[in-house]
Amino acid sequence: MNMEYCKKALTIEGGQYYIDGVRGSDVRLEEPFQYENHLYLNLTSTRGMDGERLADTVTSLNGVDLFTILISDPAFSVETDLTFPTNSKYYSWFCFAVPKPKIAAATPVLPSPLRMEIVETLDTATVALLTERWERDYVEAVLGGYPDSIKEVARKSFAGGINKEKSHHALFYKGDDLVGHLMLDTAYFPPLGGNSTAVHFWVDSTLPSADRRAIHESLWHQIHFSFSEDPRFAGVARINSKSVNYLLHNGAYPLHLRVKKIEESK
């Protein structure tokens, strides 16, 4: 593999990457390339590829500990391609595109005692509760095996987004208890070259499955038909199989996989 950097123009149309105007799956590009100060790697086939071995090769470059693998292969499988062992020295996360249906669906009706409220800004008590629940259900439950450095990045990312004003928040309650949350917020997404709608969601894992299904249905309707016409995307840790499968089940597709070398040992 040629490890010299090269500058390329990167765009996305209809879920497909284009590199210098050529569809990613048609590009025979063997070297990493740089776009907006980030290192990218385009792979036309990822079937059965060992992600950790690939990451070892790329991070052998001087000073590289973070890079992005474009998913140009339409046959990409999140279960079998670019896999990492559970004790990997790399942390990786997908960026999913969330396509919007052309025809609006009927608004789901939440069965009592479930209800939903829409707000632009969260009060201090709600932020504190969501932070506590997110710590329990994501930082500890999903990232529990990772070092504190990765958990701190996740905490800062959550805190930086949840405190923004004038976002679109859907709050789900069961009686008086907050049991679900969706945040849609405008963010600049470099590959798309402009603003996009960042998606963040949480549903209490302790709820009965029927309640979780009902909330997810309403939550997904909000993702599709609320807030803005901008493209939607969501970042999800590769290890977070529940959220990955939920997005795939609802028609989202992975655009790329970011890989970061973990500096401290577990």
In short:
This protein has 266 residues and is an alpha+beta fold. The chain contains 5 helices and 13 strands.
Commentary on this structure:
- The protein has 266 residues and is an alpha+beta fold.
- 25% of the residues lie in helices and 32% in strands.
- The chain is built from 5 helices and 13 strands.
- It has helices at residues 51-58, 124-140, 148-162, 209-225, 241-249; strands at 10-13, 16-19, 22-23, 33-35, 38-43, 66-71, 90-98, 114-119, 168-174, 177-189, 194-203, 232-237, 253-261.
- The longest helix has 17 residues, at 124-140.
Elements, N to C (H/E): EEEEEHEEEHHEEEHEHE
Could you tell me the number of beta strands? 13
Gap from first CA to last CA: 30 Å
CA-based shape: globular
Number of helices: 5
On the 0 to 100 scale, the average pLDDT is 87
| Estimated share of beta-strand residues | 25-35%
Descriptive labels:
13 strands, 3-stranded antiparallel sheet, single chain, 10-stranded mixed sheet, alpha+beta, 266 residues, 32% strand
Question: Topology of this structure?
Answer:
Blueprint: E1 10-13, E2 16-19, E3 22-23, E4 33-35, E5 38-43, H1 51-58, E6 66-71, E7 90-98, E8 114-119, H2 124-140, H3 148-162, E9 168-174, E10 177-189, E11 194-203, H4 209-225, E12 232-237, H5 241-249, E13 253-261
Parallel strand pairs: 5-6, 11-12
Antiparallel strand pairs: 1-2, 2-3, 4-5, 6-13, 7-12, 7-13, 8-9, 9-10, 10-11
